[in-house]
Amino acid sequence: MSKLTDSIASRPYLAVLAIGLVVRLVYLLYYIHGPEWDRLLVDSLFHHRWAMVIAGGDILGGEVFFRAPLYIYLLGLLYGIFGHAILVGRIFGHLVGLIAVLLTYQLADRLFTRRVAIVAGILHALYPLAVYFESELLVDSLFTMLTELSLLCLLIAGERKTIRWYFITGVVIGLAAITRPVILGLVPVYLIWILFDREKSAGYLRPIGAMILGMLLLIFPITIRNHAVGDDLVLISASGGVNFYIGNNPDADGLTAAMPPPLGANWRIQDITYLAEQDLGRELKPSEVSSYWTHQALHWITEHPGDFLRLYLKKLYYAANNYEVANNRNLRLFFDSNPVVKFIPLNFAVLVFLATIGVMLSFGNRRARLILLYLVWYLLTIAGFFINARFRLPILPLLMILAANGAVGLVQFAMKRQHITRHIAAIVAGVLLVLLSCSNWYHYHADDSSGGLFNQANYDLAHGQTDEAIARYKHILSEYPDYPEAALNCGAAYLKTGNGDSAMAYFRRELESFPANARALSNIASLYYVQGQFDSARYYAEAAIRSTPYLVDPYLVGLRTAAAVDDTSAFHAMLQRAEKSVFNPIRMYLDAGMIFSEWQMPDSAELYLRRVLEADNPAPETDDAAFDWTTAATGADSDALKARAAYQLGYLLGRQNRLNESIAMSARAIALDSGLIEAYVNLASGYLAADQRANARRIVDLAQRRFPGNALIAELARRIP
Question: Domains in the chain and their CATH numbers?
């Protein structure tokens, strides 16, 4: 016991880490038994689904990165080793968070004193928002840790005065850049740091060159990969332009990741690509799409400098505000469900108060001034885009270090009563900044829970909990009648219950608020098709196509309607239009193949069914469907569609007595979707027709074990002795 005590006394960071570990374990225990555990939200869901694809072996991908890839690839690696459990991702985040706690301690120890380091480490170990974001499948905790590590390496480089450590600093900055490229906007601070932290006689060019070389060694492989798979020169990711535009346009509020109407917060990569291509009149590469939106933002800024300045100041105000702006979940409601984050009395205002004192008490510390410069520069940088809680997460450890210095200074002042004027001035400045931080000049609705409810409702809808989903959508609409896609998804939920009248009413309600919503128009068209009102189905399908020509759903309604009335000319016309406009035509090819099969046109059916099988799965890096619980990730959905195509093709080939091809295609269908019962029947029947009874018996036995009691399988078993 004495050895343990001596060890902790000589290494107090062990006690700090122990506190952090206990807090995170208790937090996880409450989280894992709560209703939110597997409700991954938007970005978290996208990262989870993309990581699963990587774990499945798709390492290189198929498109230019829309988002920086490091976190997702690390998550994919862990999924490949430990499986796809969400717990794996949450534990990984907390381990990263504990490393960040240690780095906060180490930074504070080098910048100030051991006592300050202990306080800073404890602040980080306990800070509720840090614990929360570590457990979400988001890049921010990893980016925060790498940001801290880069500063620690820079401090060590200044102390040891070796080029190697400046190179290592550059490597860590490069890792942070391929996690979130915004750190590239902080590179000038690193250069300023080197200029002010090195003796002139030591020279600046070699350390700066070493740091930049380290950065480029990590960034350039991503650039080369982007060019290799996408034939496009994108440094890291192609989302910068649209993110800049989101924060700088006539409808921007500076706080939400929303495009101007009619897209709003539910915009998709296909949307921004289509709009850019329509405006420029040609097909664009991802870098060109990003440049287009950057240009649109800059055009608005130059045409409306006053509006831009007012919006920028608003974003800076919220960057320093105590309220944590969240875009996917109401944090207050979530925190109320977990006592670890509910009852720890630490928030941004507390840090601001103590950090203000810490800065004023040690402004003569050159490195402390550089830390303050880094913190302020970061806030100025992200205010060029938009503000929310997780985007300012990387400055929290720096704020904690300064706050710890302030807390220690206050304790020393209380004990010694020295430098009274300076301490009182620091306290007054801290109080004034806290009052500013806790104000609400822009009347932000802090209790707005609509975004979180919408995401929860989407999760419920995707998991068959339609009554719960309907209740949540209705609650949103009662408070926010024009909430985008709430009425649309409520209608979809009613449709799942078989209540077509209520579904139609909510689809039309969506159109009252958003007349050009192609999904609502397409859903109405589908309802009319099911009801046999083909003229109305065509009318609404055409309206949806005019609104959003690249959406596949209205074309499917058009194809099915034409087939229902045996209008082959309309069918072929619709098929040709769709082939020119739809980004992902695999569902359309399957429908065409099935309809040609019904029309007894085997050659055309085979042509389109083979197109389904030959189609590339959508690149997981840009798969819009992966953000939303109401749609399956398109990669997984594509495999199911290909299984249907292989089954149908196997059936057609069997009817043409092309038995070996039929058997191979039915086996492929099972490989793609092992739950497709019809494929087992088809495969066993093919073996029977080829007089391979042993193989037929083997498939039937397998099917009986997998689908006990199924009538189709039982009937087939009776045919095989």
Answer: 13-235+322-437 (no CATH), 613-721 (1.25.40.10)
